[in-house]
Specification:
The protein has no helices and 6 strands. By secondary structure, it is mainly beta. The mean pLDDT is 78.
Amino acid sequence: MTLEGNASEKIHFQLTSLGSAEQIQRVGFEIESSYGIHQRGLKSLSYPHIEDVVYHPKAFLRF
C-alpha cells in the first residue's frame, strides 16, 4: 500500500501462527516511509501534577 502526502489509512489484518499461543507472546512491526523505516510507537502521559510526557517505545503487540 502506498499513501501520498498527508494521507492516512486504517489497516486491518489477522495474524496466524503455526506455533501455539504459549510460544508467541509479542509480535513487532515496522512501517516504511520516504523518511525511513519506523519501529517506534507513541505513548503519552498527562497528569495534573506533572508536565506532559511523550515517549516512543519500540512498537509491538502483546498476546
